[in-house]
Amino acid sequence: MLDDPTTAGTWPAAYPQGYAVVDVETTGLARDDRIVSAAVYRLDARGEVEDHWYTLVNPERDPGPVWIHGLTSDVLAGAPLFADIAAEFSARLDGRVLVAHNAVFDWSMIAREYARAERTAPVRQRLCTIALSKELGLPLPNFKLEALAGHYGVVQQRAHHALDDARVLAEAFRPSLHAAAAGNIRLPLLECLPLTEWAAAPSPGPRIGRQASYRPGGGGWRPSRKRPACPYPNPGRYQVGGALVQGMRVAFSGDTSVERELLEDRAAEAGLHVATSVSRLTSVLVTNDPDSATSKTVKAKAYGTPVIDEAAFTQLLRDVAPAPAGGSAADG
């Protein structure tokens, strides 16, 4: 049995010195959706709770799925705007790794709120507890928060309440962190793009390439960045009815209910190669309108590339198969 790193003095030196476990409830999943509540549990280097904080946020719009988060327009009417709580939020995040369940979503919502407030979030790295659970090989039935909580015996009191979700995640993250430390496992840390690298466009206009632009009421912020190369070789085409495999090339076409950048980030974090076009090497095309005449759907039909819709893709993302042993990343 491995020594307990909390007593044996073998805690990995490269691990972060502190964490901010975050949960936000929002009006929806799109670029123009807003945060309606936020909670932060600050943890020390070994995952012990230092303090916690919670706030409602006036989204300045319809609150969205009240049946999920329970926050009505009347409740939120007297809440502070995000700009009013940005400084306190920053104090909670400062110098820490942001930890969340499906962290790319929480970070994208937080990043946009800071951008709207013309501020910069003081966080440079995030850690997704879904990714960590996969690294640890936890025997979970799925990767929902309730499954992770159940694995560690953490009791949920108020699901979809930001403070309780953050508490549950903090309590589940601690044993995961210790298990990673005991096995000297590299934490799946990802970069949080500094908002200073984002720029506001003077007018909505067309989006070109991956340049940053802000479109109030619709477009949101789009990061100006080049996605890192996929480290896995392309295993070939997706087999309908089977699993996605790390290294597969996935392309997207047309409108999606979840914003495109979020889907792309989820795919990349799962180990897939996000392609900007369709070629003979493309493993699968994701589109909600397979009968459209876009260049990607036309090419997919010509090449015989498998086509699936967004719902099927997000379901498959929950359990992406690991890359085959051996081999190196393919050029295509």
TrEMBL record:
<dbReference type="InterPro" id="IPR036420">
    <property type="entry name" value="BRCT_dom_sf"/>
</dbReference>
<dbReference type="InterPro" id="IPR012337">
    <property type="entry name" value="RNaseH-like_sf"/>
</dbReference>
<dbReference type="GO" id="GO:0006260">
    <property type="term" value="P:DNA replication"/>
</dbReference>
<feature type="domain" description="Exonuclease">
    <location>
        <begin position="18"/>
        <end position="182"/>
    </location>
</feature>
<dbReference type="GO" id="GO:0005829">
    <property type="term" value="C:cytosol"/>
</dbReference>
<dbReference type="InterPro" id="IPR013520">
    <property type="entry name" value="Ribonucl_H"/>
</dbReference>
<dbReference type="Pfam" id="PF00929">
    <property type="entry name" value="RNase_T"/>
</dbReference>
<dbReference type="InterPro" id="IPR036397">
    <property type="entry name" value="RNaseH_sf"/>
</dbReference>
<dbReference type="Pfam" id="PF00533">
    <property type="entry name" value="BRCT"/>
</dbReference>
<keyword id="KW-0269">Exonuclease</keyword>
<dbReference type="GO" id="GO:0003887">
    <property type="term" value="F:DNA-directed DNA polymerase activity"/>
</dbReference>
<dbReference type="GO" id="GO:0008408">
    <property type="term" value="F:3'-5' exonuclease activity"/>
</dbReference>
<keyword id="KW-0540">Nuclease</keyword>
<feature type="domain" description="BRCT">
    <location>
        <begin position="242"/>
        <end position="320"/>
    </location>
</feature>
<dbReference type="InterPro" id="IPR001357">
    <property type="entry name" value="BRCT_dom"/>
</dbReference>
<keyword id="KW-0378">Hydrolase</keyword>
<dbReference type="GO" id="GO:0003677">
    <property type="term" value="F:DNA binding"/>
</dbReference>
<dbReference type="InterPro" id="IPR006054">
    <property type="entry name" value="DnaQ"/>
</dbReference>
<protein>
    <submittedName>
        <fullName>DNA polymerase III subunit epsilon</fullName>
    </submittedName>
</protein>
